[in-house]
Design brief:
Bound molecules: beta-D-fucofuranose
Largest sheet: 6 strands, parallel
Number of helices: 10
Radius of gyration: 21 Å
Strand order of the largest sheet: 2-1-3-4-5-11
Order of helices and strands: EHEHEHEEHEHEHEHEHEHEEH
Shape: elongated
Strand content: 15-25%
């Protein structure tokens, strides 16, 4: 086939770049904001976007990547639903001379020449931030303090790393104990369902809920209320993302804190797409800046929240 990895056969300078993007799904407020950002930024940058939604299934993503390769797009970007299992399809992209940019979630590959760069947040640090906030919030409280944990999608980078970072910090304080930990797949519905099971099993033993994203926390808040308890008071709730729904829950006194994870990476991604297509070298890892908000800051920050 007349396919080369060179830059000289990509057509005239005026031909728009075609980008194939495979998205995880639409599982959370974070994700829909991320999709909006990518679509808007592609349009603004004059990049032709082929967008595919995998509905949280790796097999769908692999199919999408293969279809992008068959269509000979200029650049592929994707947010991998889970970390492992990408070697084969990434080797196919490499053999076709199509550069691959990983966004948001990391891949676990032994050969890191299989992708150009990873643009995304430091999830381990987000987990540490949630734990540090909790330790500070409970500095005057005696142990034992029982935590239940709602994990993200099993095998996904944010679930693995947010658990790791949280434990790294919380395990150093003997008052805290994670008594239950289960996946809620990053959705409200699953977050609620799993929290109901936690409440049934543990009753009033639960002091803290740590959720790997805001949507699961929001679902769980509903379960806590339905169990006749007050979220934010009887059970301290801390989660990650910083979506508008979390700010509203904080303003209503039901969520105690959220650790920011910025989904608005579209403009940065398009910038990298152009550079990679032009054959420029880019850093292997690009990290997004973010912070932590609690209830005392929620009302002031809310009007300027972009997602
Ligand atoms: O925190 C969660 C989404 O990969 C960082 O995925 C992302 C996570 C985000 O479903 O809300």
């Amino acid at each position: 086939a007349a396919c080369s990895g060179g830059k000289s056969d990509k057509g005239g300078a005026d031909r728009p770049i075609t980008l194939g993007f495979s998205q995880v799904g639409a599982e959370s407020e974070w994700r829909t904001a991320n999709t909006r950002s990518i679509k808007a930024a592609a349009k603004a940058a004059g990049i032709r976007l082929k967008f595919s939604d995998a509905q949280q299934k790796q097999e769908n993503q692999i199919k999408a990547l293969r279809s992008f390769i068959a269509q000979r797009v200029d650049v592929i970007a994707f947010s991998p639903v889970v970390e492992s299992g990408w070697e084969t399809v990434l080797r196919e992209a490499k053999a076709a001379g199509i550069p691959v940019i990983v966004t948001d979630r990391a891949v676990d590959v032994t050969d890191d020449s299989l992708y150009t760069t990873l643009i995304g947040s430091d999830f381990v640090e987000e987990g540490r931030r949630a734990a540090r906030w909790l330790i500070d919030d409970m500095k005057d409280r005696k142990g034992p303090i029982n935590i239940v944990e709602l994990q993200g999608t099993v095998g996904s980078a944010p679930a693995i790393d947010r658990q790791k970072g949280f434990h790294e910090v919380i395990d150093a304080d003997p008052r805290f104990k994670v008594i239950r930990s289960q996946s809620g797949d990053f959705t409200r519905a699953k977050g609620k369902e799993v929290m109901e099971a936690f409440l049934k099993a543990e009753g009033k033993n639960i002091d803290v809920l740590y959720a790997h994203n805001d949507d699961m926390a929001i679902g769980a808040i509903q379960a806590i209320e339905e169990a006749g308890l007050q979220p934010g008071k009887d059970i301290t709730v801390v989660s990650i993302d910083g979506v508008k729904g979390a700010f509203q829950a904080m303003m209503a006194g039901k969520l105690n804190a959220t650790v920011e994870c910025n989904p608005l990476i579209g403009p940065q991604l398009m910038d990298i797409v152009k550079k990679v297509h032009a054959g420029q070298t880019v850093p292997k890892r690009i990290i997004v800046n973010e912070s932590v908000f609690d209830r005392s800051q929620a009302a002031a920050a809310f009007p300027s929240r972009q997602y």
